[in-house]
Specification:
The complex is a heterodimer.
Chain A: H1 2-9, H2 13-24, H3 26-49, H4 52-55, E1 59-60, E2 67-68, H5 71-102, H6 105-120, H7 123-150, H8 169-194, H9 197-205, H10 210-221, H11 223-239, H12 242-247, H13 268-275, H14 282-316
Antiparallel strand pairs in A: 1-2
Helix pairs in contact in A: 3-14, 5-8, 5-11, 6-8, 7-8, 8-11, 9-10, 11-14, 13-14
Chain B: H1 2-14, H2 20-24, H3 33-63, H4 68-81, H5 85-101, H6 106-130, H7 134-142, H8 147-158, H9 160-175, H10 179-182, H11 202-210, H12 215-247
Classes of the chains: A mainly alpha, B mainly alpha.
C-alpha cells in the first residue's frame, strides 16, 4: 500500500506501468486471434453440414461428394486419452506417493530429476521410439498373444482377423501415458506435500499403518488437487500431436472409429497434422479448422476444470505453497 | 524405465551417424545441415520475439499485478500454456503463411513458437521477481529512484538467475516442438533460402525420416534424434546444474 501511494507521485512511472501492461496484453491478443481464426475458419463446414460435422463418420474430400464428419476423431482422442489416464495415473500417483512419503532424500532427488527429464524429451522422439522400437515389442509380446487367444472379443479384434501391426489405439494410449507421467506425478507430488503433517500425525496416533495413512488420509485430503493433476494430464494427452500421429496408424473415415484396441485409429490432433497441408479446397481447409476448434474447446474445458480443482486444494492448505 | 530405453536406443542407433558430413551436408547428400541451421534460426527468431515480450509481461504481473486485469492475464497465460500445439500451428498458418507473407516462412514458425514461449516466460519471470524481497524495492524507492528504474536496474538483476533459468528451459522446450512448425515452415531439403521460403528443423526432419518407407532413412532419424536430444537435454541439465550451484549456500 505504501508502495502504491509513492508510485503515483513519481513521474515516468505511469508510462512504464502502461507500457508493460500493453505488452502483457499480448496474451489476450494471442487468445483472441486464435479464437477468431478458428471460429471464422470453421464457419463454412459447420454451415454446410451442421450437426453431421459432429456426428458423422465419413471424411470425403472428393469434389462434388464432400462429406465431413469428425466423430471418429473426437472419439479417438477421448479413447487414447482414456487409456493414457488408465495406465499413467496409477503409475504417477505411485511415483508421487513414493517420493513424498517414503523415499529417503538420496533416492528422492535423482528420481524427481529423472521424471523432470522425461518431461524435457521432445514429443517427436517419443514418437520415433514408439514407431520403431516400442511398436515391435508391443506387437510381438502383447498384441499377438492377446489377439490369438482373445481375438473374438471385439476390443481385441483386427479387421479381417489379420495380425495386429502395433500401430493402433493401444500403442497411442501407452505412449500418451508415458508422456503424461511427468505432469501428473509432479503436480500430485506438490499436492501431497501440501497435506499438513498434523493430518498424518493424527492418523498415526490412532494406530494407522503407513499404507492406511496414505490411502485414507493423505489421498482423501488432497483428492481434489489430485483430481486436478489428473485432469491436467488429460489436457496434455488431448492436445498431444506429433507422437500420436506417428504411432496411431492414421486411419480415416468410418474405419477410424475406435472400436478395437488393435486397430489403427486417428485423433483430432493427428488428423490435422496429417491432412491440413494437403487440403487444397476452402471447404476442405475449413473442415480441418473445424476439427481444430473442437479440439481447442475440449482442451479449454479440461484445463478450466483442472485449474479450479488444483486451486481449491492449494488454498485449503493456506499459504504454504503460493 | 521408458526414459532409459529411449536414451539407450537414441544413443546406440544414432551414434554411428555422427560424422562431419552428417552435420554439414544438405539432405540430398546425406546430411542434416539444413535442419541444424533451421533449428538455430528458429530458436534465434523465437527468442527475439518471445523473450522480451514474455519478460516484460512477467514484470508487469509481478510489479503491478495487484489488480483484476492482472489476474485475468494470469488466467489467460495459464490457458495459453496448455494450448494444443497444433492449434497454434493453424493460427500462425492462417494469419502469417496465408495472410501476411503469402508463403511458408521461418517467421511464421517463429511466431507460432513465440505464442508458446511467451506465457511460459511470463510465468517464470513473475515467479522469480516475486522472490525478490519487498525491502529491496523499498530501499531503492527510499533513495528517490523511480519505480521503473528500480524495477529494471535493481529488481530484475536481483532475480536474474531465476529469469535466465526459466527462459532457457522454456527455449529448450519449444526447440523440440514439431506440430506448430510443421504447418508453418513445412520442412525442406535445402539450407536457409530467405524469409519467404520453407525451411527445415531437427524435429521436422525426424518426423519425415521416421515415416519414410525406407529402413535406411528411418535409421537416419536416430542420428537426428541424437543431435536434438543432446541439444535439449544438455540445455536442461546444464541450466539446472548452474542454477543449483548458485542457490546452494
Amino acid at each position: 500500500m505504501r508502495l502504491k501511494s509513492l508510485k503515483k507521485k513519481l513521474t515516468g512511472d505511469n508510462t512504464f506501468r502502461v507500457l508493460t501492461a500493453i505488452i502483457a496484453a499480448s496474451a489476450i491478443i494471442i487468445l483472441f486471434v486464435t479464437a477468431y481464426v478458428l471460429s471464422t475458419g470453421a464457419v463454412p463446414v459447420v454451415q454446410r453440414f451442421g450437426l453431421y460435422f459432429f456426428t458423422g463418420t465419413s471424411w470425403n474430400p472428393v469434389e462434388g461428394r464432400e462429406l465431413y464428419g469428425a466423430l471418429p476423431y473426437v472419439l479417438g482422442t477421448l479413447v487414447t486419452s482414456g487409456i493414457a489416464l488408465l495406465i499413467g495415473v496409477p503409475l504417477s500417483l505411485g511415483i508421487a506417493i513414493f517420493l513424498v512419503e517414503m523415499a529417503p532424500k538420496k533416492v528422492r532427488v535423482p528420481i524427481s530429476y529423472l521424471v523432470e527429464l522425461l518431461a524435457a524429451v521432445p514429443s517427436v522422439i517419443y514418437g520415433l521410439w514408439g514407431l520403431l522400437v516400442f511398436r515391435l515389442w508391443l506387437q510381438q509380446n502383447i498384441e499377438i498373444p492377446i489377439h490369438n487367444y482373445l481375438g473374438w472379443i471385439p476390443i481385441f479384434a483386427t479387421e479381417g482377423g489379420g495380425v495386429p501391426v502395433g500401430l493402433d489405439l493401444f500403442n497411442g494410449g501407452i505412449i500418451l501415458a508415458i508422456m503424461i507421467i511427468p505432469t501428473v506425478a509432479s503436480v500430485s507430488k506438490e499436492v501431497i506435500s501440501a497435506v499438513p503433517d498434523s493430518i498424518r500425525e493424527g492418523a498415526y496416533s490412532i494406530g494407522a499403518t503407513k499404507w492406511e495413512v496414505v490411502r485414507h488420509w493423505v489421498l482423501s485430503y488432497g483428492r481434489s488437487g489430485i483430481f486436478g493433476a489428473v485432469i491436467l494430464g488429460l489436457g496434455r494427452a488431448v492436445g498431444e500431436t506429433i507422437a500420436i500421429t506417428m504411432v496411431i496408424g492414421n486411419a480415416i473415415g468410418p474405419n477410424a472409429m475406435p472400436t478395437s484396441l488393435f486397430q489403427p485409429a486417428q485423433t483430432m490432433a493427428s488428423l490435422i497434422a496429417n491432412g491440413f497441408l494437403e487440403a487444397d479446397k476452402p471447404l476442405d481447409k475449413s473442415a480441418y479448422i473445424g476439427v481444430g476448434l473442437t479440439l481447442l474447446l475440449v482442451s479449454l474445458l479440461i484445463n478450466i476444470i483442472a485449474h479450479v480443482m488444483v486451486a481449491r486444494v492449494l488454498k485449503i492448505k493456506g499459504g504454504a505453497v503460493e | 524405465m521408458p526414459l532409459l530405453s529411449i536414451l539407450y536406443e537414441v544413443i546406440s542407433r544414432g551414434a554411428p551417424f555422427l560424422s562431419l558430413q552428417f552435420f554439414t551436408n544438405d539432405a540430398l547428400h546425406g546430411g542434416i545441415g539444413p535442419s541444424i541451421q533451421g533449428t538455430l534460426i528458429l530458436i534465434g527468431l523465437t527468442s527475439l520475439i518471445g523473450v522480451p515480450v514474455g519478460i516484460l509481461s512477467g514484470v508487469y504481473l509481478a510489479e503491478f499485478g495487484d489488480n483484476k486485469y492482472a489476474s485475468f492475464l494470469r488466467t489467460i497465460n495459464d490457458v495459453l500454456t496448455e494450448f494444443p500445439s497444433i492449434v497454434v500451428g493453424i493460427t500462425a498458418y492462417t494469419v502469417i503463411v496465408i495472410g501476411i507473407i503469402g508463403s511458408y516462412s521461418p517467421i511464421a514458425g517463429a511466431v507460432a513458437l513465440s505464442f508458446m514461449l511467451i506465457p511460459i516466460v511470463a510465468r517464470t519471470t513473475e515467479e522469480s521477481l516475486k522472490l525478490v524481497p519487498d525491502s529491496v524495492r523499498e530501499a531503492s524507492l527510499a533513495l528517490g529512484i523511480h519505480k521503473w528504474k528500480t524495477t529494471l536496474r535493481i529488481v530484475v538483476p536481483a532475480a536474474k538467475s531465476g529469469v535466465v533459468t526459466g527462459t532457457l528451459l522454456a527455449i529448450a522446450r519449444i526447440a523440440g516442438e514439431t506440430a506448430p512448425i510443421l504447418l508453418t515452415i513445412l520442412g525442406s531439403n535445402y539450407f536457409f533460402q530467405g524469409f519467404r521460403s520453407s525451411m527445415d528443423a531437427l524435429p521436422l526432419r525426424i518426423f519425415r525420416d521416421a515415416r519414410w518407407d525406407d529402413p535406411r532413412v528411418q535409421a537416419e532419424a536416430w542420428g537426428v534424434a541424437l543431435i536434438l536430444i543432446l541439444i535439449v537435454l544438455s540445455l536442461n541439465i546444464g541450466v539446472r546444474l548452474v542454477a543449483r550451484g548458485r542457490f546452494k549456500r
